[in-house]
């Protein structure tokens, strides 16, 4: 689940599998599904079998992309533990923070 959360952060809140449409159809008829949207049950089967994956946005850095991909691994044993994630984030976040500070993006805390 953390991989999806990371993906949502990198896409600035897009809905995962947002191209999916709800349908009550149970059989695939190309004439019915000749739109850009994929029926929900086809998406669910693809996710369950590991064939359907979220695409990391092109705006992601190399380290962000690697982190999302490993967190979205189909096989649970290939996903990092929370301890390992904390270590990875410790390496990824400082450069992001420095980059943001150079651009002046982080909000300054108000002095009280």
TrEMBL record:
It holds the Pfam family PK_Tyr_Ser-Thr. Residues 1-87 form the Serine-threonine/tyrosine-protein kinase catalytic domain. One of its GO terms (molecular function) is protein kinase activity. This is Serine-threonine/tyrosine-protein kinase catalytic domain-containing protein. It comes from Lotharella oceanica.
């Amino acid at each position: 689940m953390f991989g999806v959360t990371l993906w949502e952060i990198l896409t600035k809140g897009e809905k995962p599998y947002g191209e999916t449409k709800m349908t009550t159809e149970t059989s695939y008829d190309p004439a019915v599904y000749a739109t850009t949207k994929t029926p929900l049950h086809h998406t669910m089967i693809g996710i369950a079998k590991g064939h359907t994956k979220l695409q990391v946005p092109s705006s992601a850095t190399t380290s962000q992309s690697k982190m999302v991909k490993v967190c979205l691994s189909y096989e649970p044993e290939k996903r990092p533990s929370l301890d390992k994630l904390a270590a990875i984030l410790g390496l990824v976040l400082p450069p992001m923070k420095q980059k943001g500070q150079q651009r002046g993006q982080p909000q300054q805390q108000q002095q009280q």
